[in-house]
Description:
- The structure is a single chain.
- By secondary structure, this protein is an alpha/beta fold.
- It has helices spanning 20-23, 34-39, 60-73, 87-99, 113-119, 157-173, 176-184, 189-205, 221-230, 238-255, 263-273, 286-293, 323-332, and strands spanning 2-5, 8-14, 28-33, 48-51, 80-85, 105-110, 124-129, 132-139, 144-147, 304-311, 314-321.
- The strands form 3 sheets. It has a 7-stranded mixed β-sheet.
- It is globular, with a radius of gyration of 19 Å.
- The chain binds glycine (GLY).
- Residues 118-119, 122, 124, 214, 217 line the site of glycine.
Amino acid sequence: VIIRHQNGSYPVSFVRWSELDELLPDNYVVLTDAEVAALWKLPGKRPVVTIPAGEASKDGATFLQCHSDLAKLGLRRQGGIIAIGGGVVGDLGGFVAATYQRGVGFIQIPTTLLAMVDSSVGGKVAIDLPEGKNLVGAFYPPQAVYVALETLASLSEREYRSGLAEALKYGFIGDPDLLDILKKGHLTESTVARCIAEKQRVVEADEFETLGVRATLNYGHTVGHALEQLTGYADLKHGEAISIGMVVEAELGEFLAVTEPGTADVVREILSEAGLPVDHPLLKSADELIEVMRRDKKGRGTELAFSFLLRIGECKLFNKVDHSRVREFLIGR
Ligand code: GLY
């Protein structure tokens, strides 16, 4: 697959792990996390910067530490960063690549399902603030994405399911047939490729998320990001938070009469069958949740923004949702 963007294009290729060393430039530094470094033989003899595994590493301190490490390693502008890992490594590594010496090369090697089907494609790179997720970042497309499916075998069941939530999301927002394929079982190259193709369709139509098209990838994320933040990015995996968010946003969409009745039941059933969570005690804290959701990047002014399903297979951004209606829904839930 070739993904086109404003300044060019980049390939997303399926490769074998053993092929990576030959494919990668020699003058790049590898950025990875401690778990990946322990599990996989990193390609070649390139210098390695290792960060602790987990969302907590997507913070300002780790970001600056990576810059210092690269400076100490003597990385030059002609070089670049190879981010090998899940969404945290890709998002952080991409933002470091976008800013180190005002921008160096960047290659993504996603090792989780979530990173393969979502975060490694589309050029969004970011770190979190205590005030919210992904609040500091850039659009910085990689030069290439290499997907080695073998890495999926080392994922914990929980990590795998977390990625499945984002894969199922493509089914809910635009490719309902994918739901049947995913329900049937194990992920193949063609299923992962189908998710990537869906992501490609959306990001090529609206690279900078200004037209409301790319925002549909954020279905489940207004609530999901708020839950992640309120739980300190610790209790919930990203896909778990998004799973809960997709159910709640389908219910809210029905409450506001924009989502076809019955949709939330379908979403809930598919996600619970996939072993994903569909509820959370914090959903009772309406005011706290609304306060955090107000900072969502999709919003305008003080109102709330959600990408609601119109029905299974169709999604649309609503960026002026009255917070008092959302409060009414959450309290009555
Ligand atoms: N992960 C959402 C996006 O790339 O727009």
